[in-house]
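Field guide to reading this record: the first block holds the primary sequence, the second block holds the structure written as discrete tokens, and the final block holds curator observations. Each block starts with its own label. This record concerns Oxidoreductase, catalogued under organism Paractinoplanes durhamensis.

BLOCK 1 — SEQUENCE
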Amino acid sequence: MKHRIVVLGAGYTGAHAAGRLARRLHPHDVEITLVNAEPDFVERVRLHQLATGQTLRPRPLSEVYAGTGVTVREARVTGLDPDRRTVQLSDGELSYDTLVYALGSTAAGPEDGHHVASRPAALRLRDRLGELPAGGTVLVVGGGLTGIETVTEIAESRPDLRVSIATRGALGDWLSEKAQQHLRGALARLNITVHDDTDITGDGEIRADVTVRTGGFAVHPIAAATTLQVTATGQIEVDGTMRSVSHPDVYAVGDAGFAIGVNGKPLRMACGSGIPMAWQAADALAARLTGRKVPESPIPYYTQCISLGRHDGIIQPVTRDDRAKPSAITGGPAARIKELICAGAAWSIAHPTVLLPARRRRLTPAAAQASAQAPSSF
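BLOCK 2 — STRUCTURE
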């Protein structure tokens, strides 16, 4: 019997993990199933663009993985039993030998509020912004990367609106001085009002026709409802190979996994750390199944990339533990670099067996025997 690998979620991390596993493992020995609630890969880092009326290129997963050996199953994950090694789906149940959990996160806060953490939410926000007349007010709550990109995108696309952003601290205070100065100049150019040191909870103190919350992310509650060892926030605790510390046949990548980076700091929820987590997990899993040395090294950071509308941006180099360096690239060159990075990430997912040469290795006899003794899928 083939070793059954199930990947839950086809965002950046799940999609990369499935493609990398397909390149590393021989199709005669493994069966890779990628489960996703939507038929397309969604570029989450562009959802603020979708919310302002821009069109994103469709990337059907059935086309992306055609001929790769990865089976795409369109279904919603409703439950998980890691002790029985089964996943409950909206259309049935699926058994696995190894699970890669990549269900990601959504916006923290009220479920009915506006945010850009999912495609349906971005589309709802797009419709609401379209209803606003000239002079309407929009407030973005949260001064992180998502908040900055969202507020500048809205202000640029709708200069007739009164747009503001509220943050608990000083906006962009983690950036270098050069980057902070450029950020403040860009916000002034776009007529964005900044409310520093403002803690908005509930309806808040600042009234607006539309409030968009970007103040944080919350993981899906499925893992926390199982026997998997998770953090207080519901993230699955993993070792340096992204393997669950409580269930060795489960790997967690992206926002769903709680991993330690360099200098002992937890990795933050970000595309820049999520994709390397997927690579690490796929390579470690493939190595264990094929009897090769398991790679393990802390995941570092390199840059923070911020778009400020379509023609402006900031590329902030950072230390390995995510502290801003004094230098920064700003303006049009930064916008073009950010676009290349986003386009490159999407291209690598759309071509899962092209980016790296395929070295499809056979499973060890022990791994193959363990798969043969496992219960059948139902």
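BLOCK 3 — OBSERVATIONS
The longest helix spans residues 271-290.
The radius of gyration is 21 Å.
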